[in-house]
């Protein structure tokens, strides 16, 4: 039997903000959200992503295929067959390959890892994908994990349905694609269900700083930080990747 694990991730602040203006006109009374197809533009060079976002929200929670390239500027390219994480910031319809901040990847151990830039990943099929305005769902075939994404104005919500066995969630603060490059990160274990930290990067957005707090619905059995990363005297990871939750 599969088990559920919701994760609540809140982005506290972003250094680069986009301003928008309103015409002041009254919105139509009929609800047209059900007509939205988030997969439009994810093929060819539309450079859009299929994940969840609230209107005027600061979180764009969406899957990343894990490979660089012009077709993958938004992190996702419909002809691809891999997912290498679900990150909280994306650009849509642009020619600038940037953001992809705070990337989570649920796995069962041992996880599947390819040489960089793909790294830890899973195969998936479009038959198991579902998306509408504010919601995205997919099955990670290599681990038989169902992933559901939604957002509020400032928060990304992820729900993982594990098949059982040795389950883990990997938070990769050093994950970067295209123009994006990580310059500094921090990961701190707050308590048995909460982690917080930041990711600083450079690229199309120079000196970008994203701070986050993530709360899990179940307590960790253990937490492991990747040994290739620096850890300060308080046990805080100052860079890279870690298994932040293990059950």
At a glance:
The chain has 247 residues and is mostly beta strands. The protein has strands at 3-14, 52-53, 60-63, 82-83, 86-87, 103-108, 122-123, 130-132, 135-140, 145-151, 155-162, 167-172, 181-189, 194-202, 208-216, 222-225, 241-246. The chain has one domain (3-11, 36-246): Beta-galactosidase, Chain A, domain 5 (Distorted Sandwich), CATH 2.70.98.
Task: Give the topology.
Layout: E1 3-14, E2 52-53, E3 60-63, E4 82-83, E5 86-87, E6 103-108, E7 122-123, E8 130-132, E9 135-140, E10 145-151, E11 155-162, E12 167-172, E13 181-189, E14 194-202, E15 208-216, E16 222-225, E17 241-246
**Count of folded domains:** 1
Secondary structure class reads mainly beta
Write the CATH architecture name. Answer: Distorted Sandwich
Using only C-alpha atoms, the radius of gyration works out to 17 Å
Distance between the termini: 15 Å
Shape: globular
The major β-sheet equals:
8 strands, antiparallel
What is the CATH T-level topology?
Beta-galactosidase, Chain A, domain 5
Mean pLDDT: 83
Query: Using DSSP, what is the number of strands?
Result: 17
Give the % helix.
under 10%
Q: Tell me, what is the CATH class?
A: Mainly Beta
How are the strands ordered across the major sheet? 8-9-10-11-1-15-14-13
Count, helices: 0
SSE succession = EEEEEEEEEEEEEEEEE
Our estimate of the beta-strand percent is: 35-45%
Low-confidence stretches: 13-25, 227-233
């Amino acid at each position: 039997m599969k088990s559920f694990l919701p994760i609540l991730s809140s982005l506290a602040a972003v250094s680069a903000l986009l301003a928008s203006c309103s015409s002041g006109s009254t919105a139509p009374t009929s609800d047209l959200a059900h007509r939205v197809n988030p997969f439009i533009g994810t093929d060819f060079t539309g450079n859009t992503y299929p994940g969840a976002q609230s209107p005027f929200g600061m979180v764009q929670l969406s899957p990343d295929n894990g490979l660089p390239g012009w077709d993958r500027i938004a992190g996702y390219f419909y002809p691809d067959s891999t997912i290498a994480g679900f990150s909280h910031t994306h650009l849509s319809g642009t020619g600038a390959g940037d953001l992809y901040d705070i990337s989570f990847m649920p796995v069962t151990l041992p996880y599947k890892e390819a040489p960089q830039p793909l790294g830890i990943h899973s195969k998936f099929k479009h038959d198991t994908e579902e998306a509408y305005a504010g919601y995205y769902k997919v099955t990670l075939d290599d681990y038989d994990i169902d992933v559901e994404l939604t957002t509020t104005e400032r928060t990304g919500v992820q729900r993982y349905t594990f098949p059982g066995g040795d389950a883990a969630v990997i938070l990769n603060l050093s994950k970067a694609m295209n123009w994006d490059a990580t310059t500094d990160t921090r990961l701190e274990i707050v308590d048995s269900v909460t982690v917080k930290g930041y990711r600083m990067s450079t690229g199309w957005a120079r000196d970008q700083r994203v701070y986050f707090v993530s709360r899990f619905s179940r307590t960790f059995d253990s937490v492991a930080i990747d040994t290739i990363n620096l850890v300060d005297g308080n046990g805080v990871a100052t860079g890279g990747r870690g298994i932040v939750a293990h059950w």
